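sry for the spam today, last one i promise. struct tokens for design, 228 residues
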């Protein structure tokens, strides 16, 4: 979507969360030139939500493309959310990608938020041909995985690729206490080991607001005991 030959081009990125919508305008080199927050207010319904998105598009100024990400199971081919986003129920089935294209008058692309993070990680680090797995561990929900295969996001045939929190790995993510060091490290290591086994990536990125360097060191030790 980016046009590196025209440095004046601008692009709008939108990250839809249950409480806040984060947005930013970037230039052709990926530098953020403007950013901000808006309230999602799912209790006000779909019409209010769409008005908020249209206001963001209008406020962004001239843009060449829109990137949208959201939690849940996303069909990136059809540009819709298939499910898994109970806190914003009206998003299910909404043609979000085409609605943003109509509002902005340019191309738009919808991705699951962890897939978008994985692609952004590769882009910012110049890993244009990388094969990696990006694992995100949120505070209140099960983990999600974003896969990048040779520089392209892999979402699966129906958008379900990366739902690693649904695998029977022995962790109850709804009951897991992030203050319990050993169970957390074991659960994270099991997810990373599963990702390594079926993807064979060059790199596994672990991300989560509750993870720290001590967790990561222990996860590395546990993974060294797993023969893949």
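last one done:
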């Amino acid at each position: 979507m980016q046009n590196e030959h025209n440095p004046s081009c601008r692009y709008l990125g939108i990250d839809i969360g249950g409480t806040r919508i984060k947005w930013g305008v970037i230039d052709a080199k990926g530098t953020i030139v403007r950013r901000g927050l808006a309230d999602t207010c799912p209790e006000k319904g779909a019409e209010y939500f769409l008005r908020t998105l249209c206001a963001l598009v209008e406020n962004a100024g001239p843009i060449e493309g829109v990137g949208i990400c959201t939690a849940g199971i996303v069909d990136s081919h059809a540009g819709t959310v298939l499910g898994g986003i109970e806190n914003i129920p009206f998003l299910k089935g909404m043609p979000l990608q085409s609605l943003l294209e109509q509002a902005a008058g340019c191309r738009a692309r919808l991705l699951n938020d962890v897939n978008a993070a994985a692609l952004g990680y590769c882009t910012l680090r110049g890993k244009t041909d990388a094969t990696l797995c990006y694992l995100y561990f949120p505070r209140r929900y099960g983990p999600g995985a974003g896969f990048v295969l040779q520089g392209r996001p892999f979402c699966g045939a129906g958008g379900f690729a990366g739902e690693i929190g649904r695998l029977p790995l022995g962790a109850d993510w709804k009951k897991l206490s992030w203050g319990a060091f050993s169970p957390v490290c074991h659960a994270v290591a099991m997810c990373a080991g599963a990702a390594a086994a079926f993807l064979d990536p060059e790199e596994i990125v672990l991300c989560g607001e509750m993870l720290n360097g001590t967790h990561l060191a222990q996860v590395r030790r546990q993974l060294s005991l797993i023969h893949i």
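The two ends are 37 Å apart (CA to CA). ok im logging off now
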